[in-house]
Amino acid sequence: MWSNEVDIQRIRSNIEGFGFCAVNGLFTESDLAESEKLIDELMHSSGRVVRKLRREMAENPPEEVWVQPELSRPAMLSTKLRKSPVFETCQTLAANLFEARAHYLFDHAIYKMPRTTATTPWHQDQAYLGEHVHSPSIHFWIPFQQVSEHNGAMRFATDQPGHLLPHGPAFASNPHLLAVSAPPTDFHSANLQRGGASLHTNLTLHGTGPNPSDEIRKAWVIHFGRHPAWHKRVMQLKARWKK
Q: Does domain 5-242 have CATH number 2.60.120.620?
C-alpha cells in the first residue's frame, strides 16, 4: 500500500515528467475483488438505466456480440462502489497529489473480450471536454487482472505533447470515440500486477492495444479533479459568452 511521502513524490515526478505513472500494490485482493464483483453485476445488468449507459467501443462489431463494451459512470449507479476501498484509495491519493481536495468527475468500466483485435485509439481525455475547459485532473486506470501488451495494457506515448492536439472521430461507425490524427510510433506499455493502477492526466496521450488472450481484460477508470464537476459547465458557458 502507498503511504509515505517518497511514494507521493515519485508518483508526482513521473506524472510531471512522463505524463503517467504505473503503481503496483495500491489495493488489497479482497478490496479489488469487491469492486470487480460490483462492476461485473452492473456490466451484465439488463436494467433500463444500464442499457442507456452501456455501449460498444469497437469498430464495426458483429451484431449482438460485445467486443469492447463500455459502461459509463458505474460509481453513480452503485453506492457501494462510491464507498468502496478502491474508490476511496484513489480519491485520497489524488488529494495527496493535488495537495487539495480531489473531486469525483467521471468513471467508466471497459471490458475487452478475449481473442479480439479491438483497440482504444490514441487520444487525450481533454479532447472530450474541448479547448475551453481547463481543469487539471488525475485519471486512475485500474485493471482487474495482471496486464501487459499481451492483453490490452495501457499505452502511453513516449513524447507527451503537454497541450491538446487536434482530434477527430476515431471510427466512422462509432463517431463518439475521438482519436488524434497522427498517432505516436513510440510508446511505453504500463504493465501492472493485479492490485495496481496507472495514473495519467487529462492531457496525457494514451491508448490500449488488442486482447489476444483467453480472458476478458477488465478495467475501471476513475477521474478526479482539482475542481468539482460543475466547474466544467461554468467554463463552457463562459466560452460561449465570449463568442
A: yes
